[in-house]
């Protein structure tokens, strides 16, 4: 799935069950007069972390610096607040729908988001599209709703920054309205519909700022705002007689390959898949949705009764071994062929649970699917359900690669969920497949998947196609395409060669493509002192360093049946040039030999000479016997940080038919010893937005010089931390470089940061903490400088994030928090 789709079902955009556009009103901050224009708000993050091979080794890193300037500006936002349906004088429950003759009260909130007091102009009219007509526009005077003349206008008294004005549009549903008709009310008139805080274009029906006369109001800044007059508009919509729908998303995440008892076969290896469910609430639905979020209820599960079914087709060439069952669910299997849809197959309960249960061998047939059922109690007529806004975790399926040979193959599968929505007492089938973030097999935020003649979703087999072009490439349910996206994994073959040269204790280690690019990754120490701060620019720089020497353990082994012979060890041409003067020392027993790179970084000489390298010789190697040796890599002074420097070490048997030394005809195998000069990269970005979620400038490391932040807006800081080291294939023997005990610090008072400093003009911090905004995507423990939870209401100047668990190679996490501009 494309990144821009990931948040479609997590936007707070619907005020109630029948509203399908407009924004929920967020709490408006109480703002000071604002920080002086031109102030640069600066932010840099720091982090420490550990190489698991040597936790005592200091490793430090710094992020880039982002700066945002403060402007003197006017600002106006208009947000949909709530609506109410009234039949005569009686309030109608919102899930009953609006019908002809009803009145609908659409409420809006206008907010001064500038850093200067302003008046607000409100017209006596609003635009209606569809099945209704405006009867009256009103404003709230603090004690009652006051009519604005239909052909007139209302100019409010001065509103301080952050202060609001409530406006109501009273609308009546037309007599000819029918179920499914839209009633859309738009307050304000901007060139782009629903625009917030834009320059006024002077058309009829505008809601806009009216600057106070200089000196007339306390806090008024002389002159006019630099961005002129601002206006806004917003729409709300009711769908006449709208019906509910349960929106469910099923997810699947593949674990690592677990080796069986034998290292020479694949058929006893296992994989475990974690499954989960999410039922969307109203705020999760995307802009423009014409549905109302509902609870997910049960459906018929043949052989079991009524329940919510999660089905997982057993992947080709595997056998289901066990299921992990959450509380309130049962484990099930079926031998019905996959040509029968999962919700039509006959299921059998597996006794046991919650917890791990073993999948039995059925008395007849082969298990085609396994799954989980949240079962309605026998004899009950009350549907069992999962409430909207809920998630379910703790489901897992373990399969064994019983049909895989030493040649490897492809493992692919997909999960399905079946439930229903109760529509006026009639259940309607709800269905989703794993691999993406869209519920109910929607192909995008508002585009349902295919349905049959009865309006029910088309059910696929649930068997993953190896030719499907749309897959969940990242193994995190972010695929894109119609329906679900298979979780696909290439199981590597077992290597066979005349000589194997690999990582410590693993001569048969494999890398991304085979036995010649297996690797061991280790980092050299990176003290904080290797970074320097430019006091003028406020930017940290990773200085070139003289890395400490790093030691590696390696093992080679000649094939069974080989004669007792000598094996040669030496570094060979690297894939990417090494720094000139890189020293590599190979040691076997009491014998060692040092090699050094030439000025190109591609050729190794014997140390101290310009003689082409000759190998270290290990004599009398017995066939099939692992032989351990060591390698030390000493990178020269001036080496750049945050890079991996790989040295290929070749073990070979000189067959005597070619030139002296290594030649292509020799029996040989390579392992790579790679030194990292730091491998945890921090990238700082900032996003500027209104408190209602309207984005002024999307996440960027280089904010535009023409976009300045103003009081009431949010600065959402995001630190993306990435382990840049190479990924080791599962159970390959290659030694990956995890980053553990990661500690990220955001200190708003430590230079160059100033976002928590006290502004002398206001005697308050320049920015304040937005409650609930601190988050780590990897479930890190976030605390404040005072030790309190980072989602308390306290104002703070320091955030500390301890990332949960190790960060694997190429794994990415984000640590984010929001500050409200004062």
Structural class: mainly beta
Whole-number average pLDDT?
Answer: 85
Distance between the termini: 37 Å
- Which value, in Å, is the CA radius of gyration? 33 Å
So what's the oligomer here? single chain
Shape: flat
The biggest beta sheet is recorded as: 7 strands, antiparallel
Number of helices: 0
Helix content: under 10%
Proportion of beta-strand residues? 35-45%
Instruction: Enumerate the spans where pLDDT stays under 50 for 5 or more consecutive residues.
Output: 1-33
Total strands: 60
Give a summary of the structure in a few sentences.
With 822 residues, the protein is mainly β. Strands 24, 25, 27, 28, 30, 34 and 35 form a 7-stranded antiparallel beta sheet that branches.
Topology (SSEs and partners):
Blueprint: E1 40-43, E2 46-51, E3 54-62, E4 66-69, E5 76-87, E6 90-92, E7 103-112, E8 118-123, E9 127-130, E10 132-140, E11 145-148, E12 153-155, E13 164-173, E14 182-187, E15 198-199, E16 208-211, E17 230-231, E18 234-239, E19 244-245, E20 248-254, E21 270-279, E22 292-293, E23 296-297, E24 299-301, E25 305-313, E26 319-325, E27 330-334, E28 348-350, E29 355-358, E30 369-375, E31 385-386, E32 391-400, E33 409-413, E34 415-423, E35 426-433, E36 487-491, E37 499-503, E38 518-523, E39 531-534, E40 539-542, E41 550-558, E42 565-571, E43 583-588, E44 591-597, E45 604-606, E46 616-621, E47 627-634, E48 644-653, E49 667-676, E50 680-689, E51 695-700, E52 714-723, E53 740-747, E54 758-759, E55 764-765, E56 767-769, E57 775-776, E58 781-784, E59 798-802, E60 812-821
Parallel strand pairs: 19-22, 38-49
Antiparallel strand pairs: 1-4, 2-3, 2-53, 5-6, 5-7, 7-13, 8-12, 8-16, 9-14, 10-11, 10-13, 14-18, 15-17, 20-21, 21-32, 23-31, 24-25, 25-30, 25-34, 26-29, 26-32, 27-28, 27-30, 33-36, 34-35, 37-41, 39-40, 41-47, 42-46, 42-48, 43-44, 43-47, 44-45, 48-49, 50-51, 50-52, 52-60, 53-59, 54-55, 56-60, ...
């Amino acid at each position: 799935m494309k990144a821009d789709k990931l948040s479609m079902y997590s936007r707070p955009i619907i005020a109630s069950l029948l509203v399908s556009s407009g924004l929920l009103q967020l709490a408006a901050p109480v703002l000071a007069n604002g920080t002086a224009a031109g102030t640069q708000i600066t932010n840099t993050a720091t982090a420490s972390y550990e190489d698991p091979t040597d936790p005592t080794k200091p490793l430090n890193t710094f992020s880039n610096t982002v700066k945002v300037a403060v402007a003197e500006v006017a600002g106006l936002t208009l947000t949909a607040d709530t609506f109410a349906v009234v039949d005569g004088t009686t309030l109608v429950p919102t899930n009953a729908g609006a019908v002809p003759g009803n009145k609908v009260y659409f409420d809006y909130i206008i907010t001064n988001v500038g850093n200067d007091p302003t008046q607000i102009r409100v017209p006596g009219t609003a635009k209606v599209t569809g099945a209704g007509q405006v009867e009256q526009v009103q404003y709230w005077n603090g004690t009652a709703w006051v009519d604005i003349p239909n052909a007139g206008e209302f100019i409010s008294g001065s509103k301080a920054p952050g202060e609001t004005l409530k406006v109501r549009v009273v609308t009546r549903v037309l007599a000819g309205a029918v179920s499914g008709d839209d009633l859309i009310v738009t307050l304000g008139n901007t060139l782009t519909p629903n625009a917030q805080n834009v320059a006024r274009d002077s058309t009829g029906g505008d809601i806009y700022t009216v600057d106070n006369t200089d000196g007339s109001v306390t806090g008024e800044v002389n002159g006019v705002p630099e961005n002129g007059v601002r206006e806004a508009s917003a729409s709300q919509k009711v769908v006449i007689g709208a019906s509910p729908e349960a929106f469910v998303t099923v997810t699947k995440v593949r674990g690592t390959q677990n080796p069986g008892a034998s290292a020479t076969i694949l058929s006893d290896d296992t994989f475990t898949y974690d499954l989960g469910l999410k039922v969307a609430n109203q705020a999760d639905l995307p802009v423009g949705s014409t549905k109302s979020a509902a609870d997910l209820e049960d459906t018929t599960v043949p052989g079991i009764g009524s329940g919510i079914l999660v089905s997982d087709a057993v992947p080709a060439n595997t056998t289901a071994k066990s299921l992990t069952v959450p509380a309130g669910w049962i484990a099930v299997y079926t031998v019905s062929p996959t040509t029968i849809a999962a919700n039509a197959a006959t299921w059998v309960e597996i006794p046991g649970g919650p917890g791990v249960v073993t999948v039995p061998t059925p008395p007849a047939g082969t298990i085609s699917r396994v799954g989980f059922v949240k079962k309605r109690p026998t004899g009950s007529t009350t549907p069992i359900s999962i409430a909207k806004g809920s998630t379910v975790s703790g489901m897992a399926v373990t399969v064994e690669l019983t049909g895989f040979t030493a040649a490897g193959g492809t493992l692919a599968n997909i999960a399905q969920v079946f439930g229903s929505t109760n529509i006026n007492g009639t259940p309607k089938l709800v269905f989703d497949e794993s691999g993406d973030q869209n519920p109910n097999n929607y192909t995008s935020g508002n585009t349902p998947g295919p349905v049959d003649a009865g309006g029910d979703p088309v059910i696929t087999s649930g068997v993953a196609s190896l030719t499907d072009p749309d897959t969940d490439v990242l193994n995190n349910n972010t695929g894109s395409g119609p329906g679900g996206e298979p979780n696909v994994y290439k199981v590597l073959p077992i290597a066979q060669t005349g000589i194997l040269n690999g990582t410590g204790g693993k001569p048969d280690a494999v890398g991304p493509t085979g036995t010649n690019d297996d690797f061991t990754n280790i980092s050299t120490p990176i003290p904080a002192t290797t970074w320097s701060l430019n006091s003028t620019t406020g930017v940290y720089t990773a200085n070139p360093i003289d890395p400490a020497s790093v030691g590696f353990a390696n093992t080679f082994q000649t094939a069974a049946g080989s004669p007792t012979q000598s094996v040669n060890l030496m570094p060979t041409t690297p894939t990417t040039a090494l720094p000139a003067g890189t020293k590599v020392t190979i040691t076997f027993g009491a014998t060692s030999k040092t090699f050094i790179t030439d000025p190109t970084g591609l050729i190794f000489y014997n140390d101290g000479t310009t003689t082409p390298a000759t190998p270290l010789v290990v004599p009398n190697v017995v066939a099939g016997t692992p032989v351990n040796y060591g390698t030390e890599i000493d990178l020269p002074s001036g080496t750049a940080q945050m890079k991996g420097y790989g040295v290929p070490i070749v073990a070979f048997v000189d067959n005597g038919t070619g030139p002296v030394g290594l030649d292509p005809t020799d029996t040989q195998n390579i392992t790579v010893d790679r030194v990292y000069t730091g491998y945890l990269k921090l990238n700082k970005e900032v996003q500027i937005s209104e408190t209602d979620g309207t984005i002024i400038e999307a996440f960027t490391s280089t904010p535009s010089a023409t976009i300045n932040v103003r009081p009431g807006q949010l600065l959402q800081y995001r630190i993306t931390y990435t382990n840049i080291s190479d990924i080791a294939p599962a159970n390959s023997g290659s030694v990956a470089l995890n980053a553990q005990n990661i500690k990220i610090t955001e200190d708003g008072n430590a230079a160059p940061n100033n976002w928590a400093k006290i502004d002398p003009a206001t005697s308050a911090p320049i920015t304040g903490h937005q409650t609930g905004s601190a988050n780590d995507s990897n479930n890190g423990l976030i605390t404040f400088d005072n030790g309190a939870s980072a989602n308390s209401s306290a104002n703070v100047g320091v955030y500390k994030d301890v990332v949960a668990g190790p960060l694997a190679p190429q794994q990415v996490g984000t640590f984010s928090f929001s500050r409200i501009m004062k």
